[in-house]
Design goal:
Layout (H helix, E strand, L loop, with lengths): L1 E8 L5 E8 L2 H10 L3 E7 L2 H8 L8 H16 L4 H10 L4 H15 L4 H6 L7 H13 L2 H55 L8 H34 L3 H13 L1 H24 L4 H8 L6 H15 L4 H6 L6 H13 L2 H58 L1
Antiparallel strand pairs: 1-2, 1-3
Helix pairs in contact: 3-4, 3-8, 4-5, 7-8, 8-9, 8-11, 8-16, 9-16, 10-11, 11-12, 11-16, 12-13, 15-16
Length: about 400
């Protein structure tokens, strides 16, 4: 059976689009007419159509979608279903059109005689190189369902970690935005009202009050210019990041920063160990696995270090020694890899190293997030205190004069 895209008019005259599996376009038209719909166009999903969709936004899958599809595939194949029937069943369980298009497109390639890995590789935005290489190793070894289960666990862990970090950052981000809004309102609305009271008296104002009035006048008159300059700076920085040399320098600085560097290095080390572990368990050669794993590294400086380590391993060096040459990878992970190499259980030690790094990353993120909220509150409270103090000093001076 092939996959067909159709456009038709329903009984209300509304245009409908969708995808259907059938033996022929004529059978699709017949099914549409049985529903009371009028077929307008029925086209088979061909490879060229899918390649065109690759470059559209709808050709992407997020980590959660990849994990769900992989888990469903592993379960169905383990139950004894052929790959093409498993793909058909998975497509029926999804209601998002672009996900169904991708799965049915993969199924069409499988039906043409291609392997599952080769069919998935036709969708690089949905299934990256690591995913396809892992599936290919599972097909070669004859344990596709086991490899898919390992891949699903890996993707589920990544999805959960990303969701946890995002949820943890919501509160500090809210506090930061709320603090900025409150401070700007006080400086542009409250302070000018107080200045009107002080201007009726000819007494000299305290230096702190004069500073706050100057800042208030500046923000009230030039806030639009500040916002414009910040926007222009951000746009210029984003455009500059398209330059590989500039982006490399930025990534190198990020990796060396005190707190941010720890987060970046720990996160990328976790990705590297997890990817290497699953590829090694799937039977992918170490040098090839390292080359593939470098693609999941987000920091260019760390990725270059992994590629350099790959070259050293290709020349006969050990993985632990190659990674130990760089300062980006934690000593504990390098030591665990060395232990795995000496004991012949590298894949197992890589997995344990990834689990250790995930716990360490979670601890660092929890610590940073737990500090951000109180720090933002203290920052806001300090600024508000300065503003109130600046406004109260002239009032206290006036009261002292009246007593005299």
């Amino acid at each position: 059976m092939a996959a067909f895209e159709y456009r038709c008019l329903d009984h209300k005259g509304k245009m409908r689009k969708g995808t259907m599996e059938a033996d022929s376009a004529r059978w699709v038209r017949q099914k549409l007419r049985e529903k009371g719909w009028v077929p307008v166009a029925v086209e088979e999903i061909q490879g060229q159509t899918q390649r065109t969709r690759l470059f559209s936004r709808s050709g992407k899958l997020n980590t959660a979608q990849q994990a769900l599809i992989t888990r469903q595939m592993a379960t169905l194949i383990r139950s004894g279903l052929p790959v093409e029937e498993a793909l058909s069943s998975v497509a029926k369980q999804h209601n998002k059109e672009h996900v169904v298009h991708i799965i049915l497109g993969v199924r069409s390639k499988v039906m043409e005689g291609y392997s599952l890995a080769a069919s998935l590789a036709d969708y690089p935005k949905a299934f990256n190189q690591m995913y396809c290489a892992t599936v290919a190793a599972g097909e070669k070894s004859g344990h596709l369902e086991q490899v898919l289960e390992q891949l699903a666990e890996y993707l589920e862990t990544r999805s959960d970690a990303g969701r946890t970090v995002t949820q943890s950052l919501i509160y500090p981000a809210f506090i930061m935005v709320f603090s900025l809004v409150i401070i700007v309102l006080m400086m542009t609305y409250v302070v000018p009202r107080m200045v009107e009271v002080f201007s009726r008296n000819e007494q000299a104002l305290p230096i702190l009050t004069r500073i706050m009035i100057a800042v208030s006048d500046f923000l009230r008159d030039w806030l639009w210019l500040v916002a414009l300059l910040i926007t222009i700076a951000v746009v210029i920085f984003i455009r500059a990041l398209k330059n590989p040399k500039f982006r490399m320098r930025v990534h190198m600085r990020l990796a060396k920063m005190p707190i941010m560097g720890t987060l970046v290095c720990t996160s990328d080390s976790t990705r590297l160990a997890s990817t290497l572990g699953i590829l090694a368990r799937s039977g992918v050669p170490l040098v090839e696995a390292m080359a593939i794993s470098s693609q999941v590294i987000t920091n260019l400086a760390i990725r270059e270090a992994v590629l350099e380590a790959t070259r050293r391993v290709r020349e006969g060096g050990s993985l632990s020694h190659a990674l130990g040459k760089s300062d980006y990878f934690p000593a504990m992970m390098v030591q665990m890899i060395a232990s795995g190499e000496s004991s012949g259980e590298l894949d197992r030690m890589l997995t344990r190293g990834a689990e250790y790094q995930e716990k360490e990353l979670a601890g660092v993120v929890d610590t940073v997030v737990s500090l951000l909220g109180p720090l933002m509150l203290l920052f806001m409270a300090g600024l508000v205190f300065l503003i109130v103090l600046a406004m109260m000093q002239p009032i206290l001076q006036m009261n002292a004069l009246f007593k005299i």
